[in-house]
Every structure is written in C-alpha cells, then in structure tokens.
Amino acid sequence: MPGYETRQEHVAIGGHDYCLRVLADRQQFWDPDGHGERLGISSAQWALFGQLWPAGQLLARAMEDFDIGAKRILELGCGIGLASLVLQRRGADVVASDMHPLAEVFLAYNAALNGLPALHYRHLQWDEPLPELGRFDLIIASDVLYESEHAALLGGVVDRHAHPNAEVLVADPGRGNASHLNRQLAARGFGLDERRCTLDGDEVRRHRGRLLHYTRGLPGGQA
User: Has UniProt tagged this entry with the keyword Methyltransferase (predicted)?
Assistant: First the structure.
C-alpha cells in the first residue's frame, strides 16, 4: 500500500478462520493530506485502528454466539472490523463505524478477503450527531475507553442511536475507565451484567478482560 506497510493475520473464531489485513506495526503513519490530523488523530494514534487487539478478539468471540435475532447492530470504533465480520458471516443486520479515514478501506478489503459481502459502513465521530444513522437494538465496541471522558462521549452516542429497549456490549481490557461508563449508562436506565474473560488466551492477563453487557427494558436490565 502507498505510504504504509501491511501484513496478514489469521485468527480462529467459532471454528472459522478469518484472514485479516492489518498494519505491519504500530509505527506505520500515512496522512499526506492531513485528514487524520483534522479529525484529531495524532501520528502516535494513527496506526492503532489497524491492529488486531485482544479486546477486539474478545468481542468477536462474543458475537459468534450472541443472540442477534432480528436486531439492528452498530459497532463503534470497528478498526479492522473483526467483530462486524463475524456478524456479517452470521447474516446479521450490522453497521460498522469508525472515525479513522482508512477504516472503511480496510473493512472492505477484509470482507472480500474472507469471501463476505461488503459491510455497511459509516464514518462516525462520537461528538458529532449523525441523525440519518438511525437507532439500533444492540451497540457493540471494544477497547474504546482510553480516557475517562470517552465514557461521556459513548453515552451521547447511546442517547442518539439506541432504541429504548437496547443492549450495549463493550469488551474492555481493563484500562481503568469502565466505572465511568457504568455511571453514564446507569443514569440512562441501563443495568449491568459484567463477566470477566480471558483476553486472547493470555492466562497472565486473564483477569483483566471483561465483557460489559448493559441492558435497558430487557430481562436482567433496569426498566
């Protein structure tokens, strides 16, 4: 690819082998027109979207057997899109979203690489309303709580795009900001079911990973 190097990774989810194009390493950077900079993506952050993260794998594994029914699903910060690819393989009604200028390109390539139809993708900045995106029954994300203020931004996205009887599922690697999200969503009527999980088979860090499953107006959730 012009300006940056890529490689392929393979990961098994639910008996399926997914081949993913990712950035070669975290030092890759290519922003010739300053698009990323205008979006607030620094050179140090630029390559993060293009990595296969343990929390992303945790979310993808959760999506392999999650009850999707007829739910409309939104993935926030999809990056290379593994969780959305798992949902696409299952025939889910899923929209992948990210703010990185190259996320759509990588997502389309990875869908084709795995013999899947192109996913529905939308560029989404959490602090900018996008009314035409509509509302969803399930909103998912992984490793999105880098800073404490991200929880409030995520709460705003839920306000704008979650149905009254919605679910939110966040795969969190234990960065320490989950409590902020818990308070944000509790204030919006969500109950929490937290499950600690192994991150990518890493037994050393197995207690750090968790799935945060928030429900509102559903059994187990707060009405």
Answer: yes
Beta bridge partners of 214: 168, 192
Question: pLDDT tens digits for 76-95?
Answer: 999 999 999 999 999 999 99
Cα 28 from Cα 106, distance rounded (Å): 14
Q: 210 with 174: CB under 8 angstroms?
A: yes
Dihedral over alpha carbons 72, 78, 80, 85 (to 10 degrees): -20
How many domains does the chain fold into?
1
Which residues sit opposite 202 in a β-bridge?
199
Strand pairing of 93-98 and 72-76?
A: parallel
Within a domain: residue 106?
yes
Could you write out the three-class secondary structure of 10-60? EEEECCEEEEEEEECCCCCCCCCCCHHHHCCCCCCCCCHHHCCCHHHHHHH
Q: Report pLDDT digits (tens) over 14-26.
A: 999 999 999 999 8
Residue at 68 is within a domain? yes
Residue 17 lies in a domain: no
Find out whether 40 and 23 touch, Cβ atoms under 8 Å.
no
In a domain, 204, yes or no: yes
Within its chain, how far is the Cα of 123 from the centroid?
A: 13
25-45 as b/e: b if 16+ CB within 10 A: eeebebbeeeebeeeebeeee
CATH code, 69: 3.40.50.150
Whole-model pTM over 0.90:
yes
